[in-house]
């Protein structure tokens, strides 16, 4: 798994609209990996990131959700849950592997990375606790630690 200080990986994946997305990771960016669309904890986590999205955007922080589900699954999940941030489809596990995650079981663990200035600046393992509240924790830490005040 990538650690704090490691360079950001060069990744490209389609979002829920089938558009190719290549995050630059130059501005503060949250990439959260989750096991599967339409499951309990993953739905809670996605909805909480969506609820906090205006605050993320106001702070200049980008948010991406990533799972090994395909574009069609992400499209249905985003529509059903009203998600407006990019869900990156990673059915072959290439994005997850670029972050050093294990995909042997056909899904990645629930892990979150914060990147800024082209490097990993924080990691979170919400698998250790209930995903409820995770999006707010990441927002608070990222806004405090990695967003420059103008």
TrEMBL record:
<dbReference type="InterPro" id="IPR050924">
    <property type="entry name" value="Peroxiredoxin_BCP/PrxQ"/>
</dbReference>
<keyword id="KW-0049">Antioxidant</keyword>
<dbReference type="InterPro" id="IPR000866">
    <property type="entry name" value="AhpC/TSA"/>
</dbReference>
<dbReference type="InterPro" id="IPR036249">
    <property type="entry name" value="Thioredoxin-like_sf"/>
</dbReference>
<dbReference type="InterPro" id="IPR013766">
    <property type="entry name" value="Thioredoxin_domain"/>
</dbReference>
<protein>
    <recommendedName>
        <fullName>thioredoxin-dependent peroxiredoxin</fullName>
        <ecNumber>1.11.1.24</ecNumber>
    </recommendedName>
</protein>
<comment type="similarity">
    <text>Belongs to the peroxiredoxin family. BCP/PrxQ subfamily.</text>
</comment>
<keyword id="KW-0560">Oxidoreductase</keyword>
<dbReference type="GO" id="GO:0140824">
    <property type="term" value="F:thioredoxin-dependent peroxiredoxin activity"/>
</dbReference>
<feature type="region of interest" description="Disordered">
    <location>
        <begin position="1"/>
        <end position="20"/>
    </location>
</feature>
<dbReference type="Pfam" id="PF00578">
    <property type="entry name" value="AhpC-TSA"/>
</dbReference>
<feature type="domain" description="Thioredoxin">
    <location>
        <begin position="2"/>
        <end position="150"/>
    </location>
</feature>
<keyword id="KW-0575">Peroxidase</keyword>
<keyword id="KW-0676">Redox-active center</keyword>
<keyword id="KW-1015">Disulfide bond</keyword>
């Amino acid at each position: 798994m990538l650690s704090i200080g490691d360079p950001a990986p060069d990744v490209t994946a389609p979002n829920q609209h089938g558009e190719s997305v290549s995050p630059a990771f130059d501005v503060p960016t949250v990439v959260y990996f989750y096991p599967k669309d339409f499951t309990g904890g993953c739905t809670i986590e996605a909805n909480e990131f969506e609820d906090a999205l205006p605050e993320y955007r106001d702070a200049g922080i980008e948010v991406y959700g990533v799972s090994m589900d395909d574009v069609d699954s992400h499209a249905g999940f985003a529509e059903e849950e009203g998600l407006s941030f990019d869900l990156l489809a990673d059915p072959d596990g290439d994005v997850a592997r670029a972050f050093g995650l294990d995909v042997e079981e056909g899904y990645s663990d629930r892990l979150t990375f914060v990147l800024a200035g082209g490097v990993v600046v924080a990691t979170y393992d919400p698998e250790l606790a209930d995903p409820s509240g995770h999006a707010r924790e990441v927002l608070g830490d990222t806004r405090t630690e990695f967003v420059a005040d103008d």
